[in-house]
Fold this protein.
Amino acid sequence: TVGCVVVDSQGRCAAATSTGGLMNKMSGRIGDSPLIGAGTYACEVCGVSCTGEGEAIIRGTLAREVAAVMEYKGYELQQAVDFVIKDRLDEGFAGLIAVSNKGEVAYGFNCNGMFRGCATENGFMEVGIWE
Amino acid sequence: MSGWAIAVHGGAGVDPNLPPHRQQEAKQLLTECLNLGISALRSNASALDVVELVVRKLETDPLFNSGRGSALTAKGTVEMEASIMDGTKRRCGAVSGVSTVKNPISLARLVMEKSPHSYLAYTGAEEFAREQGVETEDNEYFITPDNVGMLKLAKEANTILFDYRIPTEKCAGTESPVKMNGLPLSIYAPE
């Protein structure tokens, strides 16, 4: 699975996710990536793209949940990401990337690694795999 | 006015024994994608345009599981999925089960912008792709030799599982102390 989330200089958020699914999957299997709210979500507050165990991501409506706790609990972006990874994944393994309309970037995962990279306008840039 | 920001991913759940050169390849591609997105953002491209641009690049490179290099079904075919969402108006588009569309993310955007629907799948998605004139490829374009080998190993190990990439340097049966869904993590990654 691959994904990208962006907030532009006007504060507009967007998210995109694309995948081939699982090796040896049953024909017809649909995962989280195309499901808005599960693997992908964007609103006025943030943009989120998920990866990992699709079935767990669907159960947790992971991407929308990040936006929901920001909207309803007033969490900051990283706080929302940490909460969702810790409390909304039951026994599943997954990761996600997110941006906020304030120009913040965050990521989180509960498995041993996630291929990811992020950058912000103030010069921050990071590419990593492991924790 | 806020500052721009961008993040990309190429999958979660990585074999801890992933060879260094494959880690380096992954990091290099992620860096290229970030730079592509940064350049577009500096040129005042919209967030929606940038996420599509970056994911198209990731779909075109066989390194990660999307587009060319997608995981294979049990039948050895490709069934790809993608979605895109514009936060400003909460518009969204998604496709599933596409097997010939070179860049499923762009088809998802067309579903959002050119159809009255949010989600098209299988034959309907393929028909819509033809109507819209998107670039297509034979199913074989998406199937890499690495993935054919991984499917064979997955079948031998009787694993239909959460993720697919078995490092070519290792055997599917190799014991790993790290497990996911009761199975060695080495049969997954990188997802």
